[in-house]
Amino acid sequence: MQAIVETLFDAVYLISVVTIGVVMILKSKGKSQFRLFGWMAVVLGAGDSFHLVPRALALCTTGLENYTVPLGLGKWITSITMTIFYVLLYYVWRKRYQIKGQSGLTAVVYGLAGIRIVLCMMPQNQWLSDKAPLAWGIYRNLPFALLGLVIILLFYRSTKECRDHAFHWMWLTIVLSFGFYIPVVLWADTIPLIGMLMIPKTCAYVWTVLIGYFAMKKECK
Predict the structure, then answer these.
(1) Using an 8 Å Cβ cutoff, are 175 and 153 in contact?
(2) Do the Cβ atoms of 47 and 80 come closer than 8 Å?
(3) Hey, which of 68, 78, 132, 214 has its CA 20 to 30 A from 155?
(4) Residue 154 pLDDT > 90, yes or no?
(5) 53 contacts 62 by C-beta, under 8 angstroms
(6) pTM of the model
(7) CB 150 within 8 A of CB 109
(8) How far apart are CA 126 and CA 143, in angstroms?
(9) Cα-based angle 36, 116, 46 (whole degrees, multiple of 5)
(10) In this model, does residue 70 exceed pLDDT 80?
């Protein structure tokens, strides 16, 4: 039952976010913020597929324990693409609210993203092992969490100041995604049931993508 439900859920998620992303790229009508948002959605779906597709195959065939290498490789790739996702979201913020300058802020975003990617590339993560160390899971996610916090604060402040109703809850979707993700990083290996939090985390990302899509439909008429 888990195999069927989880596979269907992941398939709907991946197809939905990639399709929405492609539609946004094609129908953004020259508005760069929405075209960029579309690419962001495609990166999200394409990156997650490297982990979710092997997981679905494992659940529907011989089990997760026999797919350690492809699952680990998928997690590695997803960790990189999720970092890129937030860098793209930062540029969506800049374009939507016509932000100029602020090179220091941009340096912080690139710095945190760069540190995260470097940490993800370190062999100590043991991505291809079934006994990946918790410590390195924490190390690589610290700059990622700080990057998320920066994006949360930027959208929270700008949507309030500009009374941007379309993006009003963008900050909350990011808060929820990290709120569901952090317990998984810390405790999923010892309490497997906590891994179920990845479902509401995924829903939070779908909400993020839908915010951009509905804003485009309204503003690109």
Answers:
(1) no
(2) yes
(3) 78
(4) yes
(5) no
(6) 0.93
(7) yes
(8) 19
(9) 40
(10) yes
Q: Do residues 132 and 125 lie in contact, with contact meaning Cβ atoms separated by under 8 Å?
A: yes
Q: What pLDDT is stored for residue 39 in this prediction?
A: 96
The pLDDT tens digits of the residues spanning 155-164 come to 999 999 999 9
Q: pLDDT tens digit string along 88-125?
A: 999 999 999 999 999 999 999 999 999 999 999 999 99
Cβ 180 vs Cβ 206: under 8 Å:
no
Burial of residue 123, with CB atoms counted within 10 A of its CB: 0-12 exposed, 13-18 middle, 19 or more buried: exposed
Structure tokens at 7: 């596979």
For 38, the token pair is: 């579309």
141-161 core/surface letters (b: 16 or more CB in 10 A; e: else)? bebbbebbebbbebbbebbee
d(C-alpha 209, C-alpha 16), whole Å: 10
**Burial level of 53, CB count in 10 A (0-12/13-18/19+)?**
middle
Per DSSP, helices labelled H in the chain are 2-27, 32-60, 68-96, 103-121, 134-162, 170-187, 198-219
Residue 121, Cβ neighbours under 10 Å: how many?
A: 13
